[in-house]
Model the fold of this input.
Amino acid sequence: MSELEGQIAVVTGASSGIGRAVCCALAQRRAVLSLVARTADALHDTRRAIASEAAAVHEYRADLTNDKDVAALTDALKADWGRVDILVHSAGLFLRGSVEEQPVADLDRLYRINVRAPYLLTQSLLPIMKGQDGGLGQIVFVNSLAGLHARAGLSQYAATKFALRALADSVRQEVRGEGIRVMSVYPGRVATPMQRAVRRMEGGAYEPASYAQPEDIADVLVNALCLPATAEVTDVSVYPFGGHGAESGGPA
Done:
């Protein structure tokens, strides 16, 4: 029996990239998957990919920047499962530009999806993550190396990722006594659709073999979730091994 078999896992950004890879890794461990993303067709694709391995799979289409969608998602999860054991925040947005040129509207967009959305969803789900009859709750914030090292051209993005790091650190101290572990994962450049768009913004070639793979990040994340209750991983950085994607601060 897998350590995660039958556990209720909610994964945002489940339709692609790291989020989809995390869903696949959790499915292999027989978790019950709650897939969250904005696009129904992409959610269907993820569900088809994991349905034969997961204990069960439900889809939840939601725009996490919309408070009504977050409230509806919370109500649906309560009605369908009654509890949440694992919450993985993988949805995110990347925009780049200098402080002098990047409009403040971009900062507002980045803040809503990279900080406010995980804050609100965590706040909404904490009541059904606590008091699991001695069980262990787990929250994972998929951050970025930009949340540790700010670089030129990434001021707005890095600011939101530093804020996400602070959110995770504070939540960890608040809920540790409630039997909930909180982990931040800081990937470097990862071969994802987001990375393809990033390289286009940077005017460079997209070379997937130069970057870490989504499955690499998912393996690190899920292996940490499988640790016994006597230990926890609070922060883990995952760099590409060699290649030009190894520089710090790049978005996942």
